[in-house]
Amino acid sequence: MSDLISWKSKFESYLLDHPSEDGSHDLSHFQRVWKLAEKLSEPSTDALTVLAACYFHDIVSYPKDDPRRSQSSTDAGEKAAAILMDMGFPEEKIPAVRHCIEAHSFSANIETRTLEAKVVQDADRMEALGAIGLARTFYVSGLMKRMLFSPEDPFAKDRELDDQKFAIDHFQVKLLKLPKTMKTEKGKLEAEKRARVLSRFLEDLADELSD
Q1: Is 14:86 a contact under the CB 8 Å cutoff?
Q2: What is the DSSP string of 58-71?
Q3: Which residues pair with 2 in a beta bridge?
Q4: What is the pLDDT of residues 63-99, one digit of tens each?
Q5: What is the architecture of the domain spanning 128-211?
Q6: Of 110, 178, 181, 184, which cross-links 103 as Cys (Cβ 3.0–4.6 Å)?
Q7: Could you give the 3-state DSSP secondary structure of residue 147?
Q8: What is the DSSP letter of 98?
Q9: 147 φ, ψ to 5°?
Q10: Do 45 and 116 touch, CB atoms closer than 8 A?
Q11: Considering Cα of 184, then 190, then 192, then 195, what sign does the dihedral take?
């Protein structure tokens, strides 16, 4: 445990010295993903591998409208490996950390081959759900200058979904489908709980718009 605390402190010091300009992929995001990963882990999970992956999984994160978007996790894995080597992180664990980072991404669509990768992927995807997910969705949509919803047809009853234009469409295009992608049993239960927060929001929004 002391080893984990020591490495966590080192990771946070590095990230504080190299802050992200993207508020959806900042230090607090990494801290929350780690806390979630701890809850989703099993006794056999290698905690140090998961810790490192949680703190560096988005060390490279191209904007959602960048053509390199699907390459983010691969580049993040490469950069994280170099950072960890410089820190003196156990060299034998770096390939496992790198796999966790590369496989966490939704857009990269890389198979999770280890328990650690499944835990990190589930923990990161949980951040797109619940109250935090709600806040992050609108934060990112604001950065992308997307509209909140279509004034004529907010819930796409008579049009094609387009989450490149409307933030609300992203709920149906991706977010509400995430619980089915979870790889751990604990992750599935938590994701279903958090998805209900998004569903309730959509219901509340529909009520307000009908008024």
Answers
A1: no
A2: TSS---TTSTTGGG
A3: none
A4: 676 667 767 788 888 999 999 999 999 999 999 999 9
A5: Orthogonal Bundle (1.10)
A6: 110
A7: strand
A8: H
A9: -75, 155
A10: yes
A11: negative
pLDDT band, residue 1 (cuts 50/70/90) = low
H-state helical runs in 18-129: 27-40, 47-56, 72-87, 94-103, 115-126
Name the token pair of 201: 């929001």
Question: Which two structure tokens, joined as six digits, stand for 63?
Answer: 């904007």
Interhelix angle for 2-17 vs 27-40, to 10°? 160
User: Which residue type is seen at 109?
Assistant: N
For the CA atoms of 139, 103, 124, 91, what is the dihedral angle to 10 degrees? -110
Architecture of the domain delimited by 1-116? Orthogonal Bundle (1.10)
Classified as helix, coil or strand, 152 is coil
Residues of the chain with CATH 1.10.3210.50: 1-116, 128-211
Across the strands, what pairs with 147?
166
Residue type at position 88: G
- Residue 123 amino acid letter: A
pLDDT at 67: 67
> Both tokens of residue 93?
């664990």
Residue 209 three-state SS: helix
pTM of the model: 0.88
Give the SS3 label for residue 153. coil
